[in-house]
Specification:
This protein is of the alpha+beta class. It is built from nine helices and 18 strands. Among the domains are: 113 residues, Factor Xa Inhibitor (Irregular), CATH 4.10.410.10; 58 residues, Factor Xa Inhibitor, CATH 4.10.410; 54 residues, Pancreatic trypsin inhibitor Kunitz domain (Factor Xa Inhibitor); 52 residues, Factor Xa Inhibitor (Irregular); 52 residues, Pancreatic trypsin inhibitor Kunitz domain (Factor Xa Inhibitor, Irregular); 42 residues, Irregular (Factor Xa Inhibitor). One of its GO terms (molecular function) is serine-type endopeptidase inhibitor activity.
């Protein structure tokens, strides 16, 4: 009987599917997959590649609030909302009570960082792992900020003077954070395990931070301490931004400026901060700026010990050319340039003019100053064919090939890529005298000629600007992808004329041609809009 009753209930239950929700006479499909994941709140605002100007909202993780930005109209990412309310609903949790009475709330995201919250049960501020979005207002960047907000009448923060005289104190909590404290008896910094709350200020993230604070403090108390020279700072501190710290003193200190690649002054507040801080410029330069003993161009490629990788250029004596390399961001040497042009200007003034990789076949044959006798091939622009010549073995130019086949493969393709711009200046059949412009592939410049007024060919422009717009862009964008002879692997973009779009490729680091761009946007601007 009971089983029959159960079947009856199941039979009369309404069937609900995920495809539609009935709210009236018509059914509306609800796409639950379109609900944004809270992790989008962690993304940086992205205007996208288009050029419109729509005011949208995004969640600013630093301010922990929604803010306006200008959206281009296409692509971008999920941290974009039409209304501030939508942004706040997903990313900012509304609070209903005093911040200090709210529970610890890590939030749903996973960009973990250590923050502080007030624990009513222990009547103290404690550390916790915050996910980066939502959460609540019981969430502070520092212990001092938490105490100032929630413990005004209870307990003052520990004083920074005499910090290093205090014994190690793990505190009552049960976390296991490896920290450093200064042992006054042994006059050195030692490891201990911090529980995560209370304790005292003799508590440092690293040995370097402990020694920087306590050796100075003990000196001010007149206590002599043997300096442990093995505790040299890690060169990676040179990558940090200068940090004045939360205190209000005004000490002039030195830090390494990674942009200028030199040590500079800043004002330090007197407590906390980070390792990119030196009392003397000499100390800063010793760690972060490597002294050089010879001409920059004769120094070897030197990436340095740090890991903030960026692409730079150095002069390679072996190949007599400037080549790209990955620089770590600190130390290194002076054979380190921001651009290929800067490298060439410094290191190749007296050696040889840089051969232009575009227009190779427009150059005349050049045996060079040396006396060897190597049979080679060059492309004769006047006769439009490859011919033999004797190469001396050094310098010369790039119109220099091992075989006739290699010469024709390179130069017939290059001439084809010039199109109308490869045609000679042609005055035409008439007797007029009009000042016109044509592109000279030998000099790779637009030059004037006198046009008769009829006939001629298409390499004929009314202005220099029109000539350059057509022919210089065509020269660049028509060239085939060329990784160059070097063995590096640097992500770049080139215009694929066959596919009519910009595509990525790995550049070897030297030579190649002009159809090479740092970004897709730069490639699109130069070539894609022209040839689509």
């Amino acid at each position: 009987m009971e089983l029959e009753f159960l079947y009856a209930i199941l039979f009369f239950l309404p069937v609900v599917t995920h495809e539609a929700v009935h709210t009236g006479p018509s059914a509306v499909a609800v796409d639950h997959s379109a609900v944004k994941d809270p992790s989008v709140c962690l993304l940086q605002p992205d205007a996208g590649p288009c050029r419109a100007a729509h005011h949208q909202w995004y969640y600013n993780i630093t301010l922990r609030e929604c803010a306006l930005f200008v959206y281009g109209g296409c692509e971008g990412n999920g941290n974009r909302f039409e209304k501030k309310k939508e942004c706040r609903t997903l990313c900012v949790k509304k609070e209903k009570k005093d911040a200090c009475k709210q529970p610890k709330e890590p939030g749903p995201c996973m960009a973990l960082s250590y923050r502080w919250y007030y624990n009513e049960a222990t009547d103290d501020c404690e550390m916790f792992a915050y996910g980066g979005c939502q959460g609540n207002e019981n969430n502070f960047a520092t212990e001092e900020e938490c105490r100032a907000k929630c413990m005004k009448a209870q307990k003052p923060p520990s004083t920074s003077s005499g910090v290093c005289m205090q014994p190690s104190d793990s505190g009552p909590c049960k976390a296991r954070h490896p920290r450093w404290f200064f042992d006054l008896d042994e006059r050195k910094c030692k490891k201990f395990i911090y529980g995560g709350c209370q304790g005292n200020s003799n508590n440092f993230e690293s040995k370097q931070e402990c020694e920087a604070k306590c050796l100075e403090e003990l000196k001010s108390f007149g206590i002599c301490v043997a300096v442990d020279h093995s505790a040299v700072k890690d060169p990676s501190v040179c990558l940090l931004q200068p940090d004045a710290g939360p205190c209000r003193a005004a000490h002039h200190q030195w830090y390494y400026n990674i942009t200028l690649r030199e040590c500079a002054l800043f004002v330090y507040g007197g407590c906390e901060g980070n390792g990119n801080r030196f009392e003397k410029k000499k100390e800063c330069r010793t760690l972060c700026v490597k002294k050089e003993k010879k001409d920059a161009c004769k120094q070897p490629k030197e990436p340095g010990p740090c890991m903030a990788l960026s692409y730079r250029w150095y002069y390679n004596e072996a190949t007599d050319d400037c080549e790209m390399f990955a620089y770590g961001g600190c130390q290194g040497n002076e054979n380190n340039f921001a651009t290929e042009e800067e490298c060439r200007a410094k290191c190749m003034k007296a050696q040889k003019p840089p051969s232009t990789s575009s227009g190779v076949c427009m150059q005349p044959s050049d045996s060079g100053p040396c006396k060897a006798r190597h049979p080679r091939w060059f492309f004769d622009l006047d006769e439009r064919k490859c011919k033999k010549f004797i190469y001396g073995g050094c310098q010369g130019n790039s119109n220099n090939f091992e075989s006739k086949q290699e010469c024709e493969q390179k130069c017939l393709e290059e001439l084809k890529s010039f199109g109308i711009c490869g045609q000679p200046a042609d005055t035409g059949n008439c007797r007029g005298k009009e000042q016109k412009w044509f592109f000279n592939p030998r000099t790779r410049k637009c030059e004037t000629f006198t046009y008769g007024g009829c006939g001629g060919n298409s390499n004929n422009f009314g202005s220099k600007q029109q000539c350059e717009t057509v022919c210089l862009d065509e020269l660049t964008c028509n060239q085939k992808m060329d990784v160059g002879p070097c063995r590096g692997s640097f992500p770049m973009w080139y215009y694929n004329r066959d596919g009519k779009k910009c595509e990525p490729f790995n550049y070897g680091g030297c030579k190649g041609n002009a159809n090479r761009f740092d970004t897709k946007a730069a490639c699109d601007k130069k070539c894609n809009r022209r040839y689509r």
